[in-house]
Amino acid sequence: MSNPIEALLAQHSLAILDGALATELEARGCDLKDPLWSAKILIEQPELIYDVHYDYFAAGADVAISASYQATFEAFARRGLDTEQAAELMHQAVRLATRARDNFWNALNAEQQNRRPRPLVAASVGPYGAMLADGSEYRGHYALTEEELMAFHRPRLEVLLAAGADLLACETLPCLSEARALARLMDAIPDACGWISFSCQSREHNCQGERLSDCVAALEPYHSVVAIGLNCTAPEHVPGLLRSVQGVSRKPLLVYPNSGEQYDADHKCWHGPVNSEQYAGAAEHWHREGARLIGGCCRTSPADIAAVSARLRPQQ
Question: What PANTHER family would the database entry show (predicted)?
């Protein structure tokens, strides 16, 4: 099994991930108040997704995460799409990111290419709770066994891997049982690999209440898990979470938390200041705490990733 993250980090001190996709799509006029969330745009305006990926690469991202977080056979079936149509949309999510990567890279001159890694495409694998579209990815406690979670994820993993992604981004996972189900699947699929990223509620615990350090230790034996960490988490929790897993795993640590704004569930809006330089300063601290892959999740933007890139890789 080739490990694209290992190869990238062998040449560079860190990898910069992209930021929020949905936030940028909304900023460009998309209405994502829909159970499909950003996957809705795969149907309606796929070229907008391409544009966002391209802008993140231009901002300095080394990895694009595809628009497949909420793309599942079950969710598309509720929209009246059959298995073949759903699989084609998942393929399209990967192709849009790959085309943006290739066009961006080919537009650089040789000197520019020498200063940064050739970017990767990670196919997003959202949690079971994302398909339910009821916030379960921030609670966990699914009424499913590990084997049932494997059965849910297997068809989508096979489609996304066949679409040509460099790796999988198994993200916003609220609990160890789902992470282990995905790790077992990747270990069983030839040449599959990906990262595991938990949503977390505190400086030590994932959203289901398990210690992140216990989760990291439990995933250490799975060779297909090429990085491990957290996303969709309040940035103030990140230093404590990183310290809690120091020395627990030999796998690279990744973090891509939210911007720091607070979500108002009653009014369905975000509050708080947005400051790219402040986010970049926090990212510098996360790097000192051991993170090797750093990006952004909800409410982050290309401006934030550009600030992170300028701070952590100024020569680029």
Answer: HOMOCYSTEINE S-METHYLTRANSFERASE-LIKE ISOFORM 1, ZGC:172121
Beta strand 194-198 with 63-65 is unpaired
pLDDT digits (tens, 9 = 90+) for 198-219: 999 999 999 999 999 999 999 9
Establish whether 215 is an annotated binding residue.
no
**Residue at 84: amino acid letter:** E
What CATH number should be reported for the domain holding residue 73? Answer: 3.20.20.330
Q: Which two tokens stand for residue 278?
A: 């402040």
Number of structural domains, the chain? 1
CB 207 within 8 A of CB 199: yes
207 is in an annotated binding site: no
- Residue range of the domain that includes 45: 4-312
193 is in an annotated binding site: no
